[in-house]
Amino acid sequence: MTAPPAVLLVSDHVDGCVHVVTVPDGEVVARLTGRHLSEHAGFLALPGGRTACVDDRRGELLVLDPFGDRLVETAVPVAVPAEHLAGDPAGLRLAVTTGLGRNTEPWSDLLTVVDLTTGDAARVRTRAGEPGVTLPGGGDPLVVLRHREPGALAVHRFADLLAAPPGCPPLPPSTLLPLPDDGHGDAYDPGSDQVFAATGPGVHRARREGDTLVPGPVTPWGHAARGWYLRLDTRGRALWSTLRGGPPDPLRWPEWTNHAWRHDLTTDRTSLTALGPGLVFRLAFARCHTAFARIHPDGDELVLLDLDGAVRRVPLPAMDGAPGPGSTPWEGVERRAVAASPGADWVAVTRGGHGEVHVVDAASGREVTRVELSTPLRHGGHATLRTLTDGAEGDPVGR
Predict the structure, then answer these.
(1) Which of 62, 81, 307, 385 could pair covalently with 101 via S-S, beta carbons 3.0-4.6 A apart?
(2) Which pLDDT tens digit goes with each residue over 162-190?
(3) For 164, how many CA atoms within 13 A lie in the half-sphere containing its CB?
(4) Is residue 24 reached through a cis peptide bond, with omega within 30 degrees of 0 on the bond before it?
(5) For residues 128-154, b (16+ Cβ closer than 10 Å) or e, as one string?
(6) Within 13 Å and on the Cβ side, how many CA atoms surround 126?
(7) pLDDT for 199-244, tens place per residue?
(8) How high is the pLDDT of residue 2?
(9) Mean pLDDT throughout 54-61?
């Protein structure tokens, strides 16, 4: 059986279904039902076109292989609600942090580590909150938790965590590096063994030395705004974010400004590109474009930024139940998820509440397929696009 050029995984985390769609033809070839994936922890790219994610209802880490004979390759129990998911550069050792879930106050301090080579897993207590996580290092990785209020990078040895006894014991970090209290956004560059954390002043970095981290310089945002999302570009050594500015009141979100922020890790140069007002958050990397979904009462669009900085805007049909002026853009409203693969030119963007996915050729800006799913994709769902050899696993943080 010939493998499809690309496969799109679309999660309806509200209805509890994962749709497997071949691209570019848009055929739904499989459905995984009864699975409510953590939208916040997202999808973690693994070698060979595989993907890791967390089922928040069953409390399982799943390894999905959409190109193989069995979709669910592995299922390992983990603590939930899953907040963040990351792996080591080889994609063999993973960590899952817990967050608020459907609660208003931090309550869970559980961290789960999993060794996919043996199937072993362990849970320990760290600190209640919404910690980000990265796993710097090769054969003996560290587990670095990015905490807020008080802000810190907490360093653990993966081997120490995996060797913890039963009963979820507390395990203090071996090293603590201070951070501002408003950290949100994490990345790790295997090429330089550097961890990055987004805060209000800019991007903090730390380099692994032995079993600890050594802090480095802070890269400022260079704009009257900040990034809440941070991602490593596997097509070149660069960090990306979406800078949000404008009034801090979330009820005035249509007035928010948005800029694509790219920082070249080789030259240390930063570039900004205006995306337009409204809600823009996550981004996705296609072969030659970076994709953003922008939501605004005056009209939604897919924004495609090519490698030379040129911007193409593709209008998207309106969503029933979309956020409007005077309400927040994330409470009980429909949204969009965007997905792409660095090994292909296609970009997928969801239409929350309608069960639709638009597949766009980034090179031409033309919609090539519109996929009709059997679930509505409330809140926009979540999606990832993979090819067998796209190298997306070079970013070892869940997205």
Answers:
(1) 81
(2) 999 999 999 999 999 999 999 999 999 99
(3) 24
(4) yes
(5) bbbbbbbbbbeeebbbbbbbbeebbbb
(6) 33
(7) 999 999 999 999 999 999 999 998 889 999 999 999 999 999 999 9
(8) 66
(9) 98
Q: Look up residue 76 and give its two tokens.
A: 């390992």
3-state secondary structure of 392: helix
Contacts (Cβ under 8 Å, ≥6 apart) of 69? none
Q: What is the pLDDT of residues 284-300, one digit of tens each?
A: 999 999 999 999 999 99
pTM to 2 decimals? 0.97
**Nearest to residue 143, comparing CAs of 167, 128, 123?**
123
CA-to-CA distance for 237 and 323, rounded, in angstroms?
35
Q: Are 93 and 83 in contact (CB under 8 A)?
A: no
Place of tokens 């974010």: 241
CA distance 364 to 377: 27
What's the count of helices (H) and strands (E) in the chain, helices before strands?
Answer: 1, 34
- Spatial separation of the C-alpha atoms in residues 145 and 133, rounded to whole Å: 5
What is the 3-state composition of the chain as percent helix, strand, coil, each rounded to the nearest 5?
5, 45, 50
Residue 138 scores a pLDDT above 80: no
Q: How far is CA 153 from the centre of its chain?
A: 19
* 128: DSSP letter: S
User: For residue 394, how many other CB atoms are within 10 A of its CB?
Assistant: 17
pLDDT attached to residue 313? 98
Domains of the chain: 6-394 (2.130.10.10)
104 phi/psi in degrees, rounded to 5: -95, -15
Tokens of 113: 């580590």
213 touches 157 (CB < 8 A): no
How far apart, in whole angstroms, are the C-alpha atoms of residue 374 and residue 168? 40
- How far apart CA 69 and CA 73 sit, in angstroms, is 9
Q: Is 30 exposed, middle or buried (0-12, 13-18, 19+ CB in 10 A)?
A: middle
- Tell me the pLDDT of the chain averaged across its residues: 96
Please state, for a pLDDT cut of 70, what percent of the chain lies above it.
Answer: 99
